[in-house]
Write a structure and sequence with these properties.
heterodimer; A: about 100 residues; mainly alpha; B: about 240 residues; mainly beta; eight-stranded antiparallel sheet; 15 strands; elongated
């Protein structure tokens, strides 16, 4: 049973509060794709920033150029139904999708 | 000097000195665990020949943080304090919990007269420091005219993973100047990002949302707070 804490007292939810609580949970589920997309964008930004020095150095391989382009194009190249696959982890918590793997320097 | 009997005519003024007092004079009394402002302490007044007087708790010491309330509970849809008043100009909430739903945010809204303030008047700017297994990064998290404030972003629901924060709100009871807040939070962001993160920043409660605030509510984006340990303090000026 879900409870509230208000000013030192733990109590049951009222009917209205229960409805608000359930609406909150539903909104979270409904917002799953948007939440995943935000994480995908965060991951993409981090990898692009980590390899900006390749661009500054001016000696990128074709493979490196293609990989950075695939990261930039990531949101439009993947559908919502592929977000789970993009964010899949192995048992050690590492992302498993090949797009997150940097080409060798 | 030891006395074996009360002298004829009764006890003279100032005749009972410390050697006649048993320590149970204090330890034999009923203990209390909180103090009211008008509770009294016995003192020797240095400015009046050491005569015994009392001082009330409200006059002891200078400004200090006073713990007003707290909880240690689990399975909570929210943690709400509706106890802001003009007695304290600044309030600090220190909290830690685990999420019941993986990757859900911890959020905050202020309250007035027992109601959440849900207008789009919450603005924040946080700096973010993140550490992953093999690298570190810095960034920001911010918003303008949202209907709530983020305290964390998608933290882990593993029972061993800590999520916590220190939150300071300034002059919530002010009727003229809008209130603002400082936040320091830490959390392990799950769901693919998998980074240990720290947020440090400020919150501006714009428009009437930032005036005459009487309370505050912390709640998960989804599910409940597990193993929540929260305390709220008020800053006493004197």
């Amino acid at each position: 049973m879900v409870k509230r804490f208000v000013d030192g007292i733990v109590r049951d939810l009222t009917t209205d509060e229960q409805a608000e609580y359930e609406a909150r949970n539903k909104a979270f589920e409904d917002n799953k794709a948007q939440r995943q997309l935000e994480k995908i964008r965060d991951l993409r930004l981090r990898l692009l920033e980590e390899t900006d020095w390749w661009v500054l150095k001016g000696e990128m391989t074709d493979e490196q150029k293609a990989w950075r382009k695939s990261l930039r194009d990531l949101p439009q190249d993947y559908e919502e139904i592929q977000y789970d696959e993009l964010l899949a982890l192995d048992e050690q918590g590492n992302l498993t999708h090949s797009i997150w793997t940097q080409p060798t320097e | 000097m030891s006395k074996s009997q009360i002298v004829t005519g009764g006890i003279a003024d100032d005749a009972i000195s410390e050697e006649h007092l048993d320590s149970t004079l204090i330890t034999g009394q009923t203990a209390i665990t909180s103090l009211a402002d008008t509770d009294k302490f016995l003192v020797s007044d240095a400015s009046d020949s050491g005569n015994l007087k009392y001082v009330e708790k409200q006059y002891i010491g200078g400004g200090t943080w006073v713990r007003l309330n707290g909880t240690s509970a689990t399975g909570l849809s929210d943690i709400t304090y509706d106890n802001f008043s003009s007695t304290y100009q600044v309030y600090k909430i220190i909290g830690s919990h685990t999420m019941s739903t993986d990757n859900a945010q911890t959020r905050m809204r202020v309250r007035k007269s027992g109601s959440d303030q849900t207008s789009n008047h919450y603005r924040w700017a946080f700096g973010e420091t993140a550490r992953l297994i093999g690298s570190a990064s810095t960034g920001e998290n911010s918003s303008w005219n949202n209907d709530h404030v983020r305290i964390t972003k998608g933290s882990s629901y593993a029972v061993a993973h800590p999520t916590g924060f220190e939150f300071t709100i300034y002059s919530p009871s002010d009727s003229t100047r809008q209130s603002a807040c400082f936040l320091n939070s830490f959390f392990y962001e799950s769901g693919g990002t998998n980074a240990w993160k720290a947020w440090t920043g400020s919150i501006w409660l714009d428009s009437t949302t930032g005036l005459d605030i009487t309370g505050i509510k912390f709640y998960p984006e989804s599910g409940t707070f597990i193993n929540a340990k929260y305390s709220i303090y008020g800053l006493k000026d004197s």
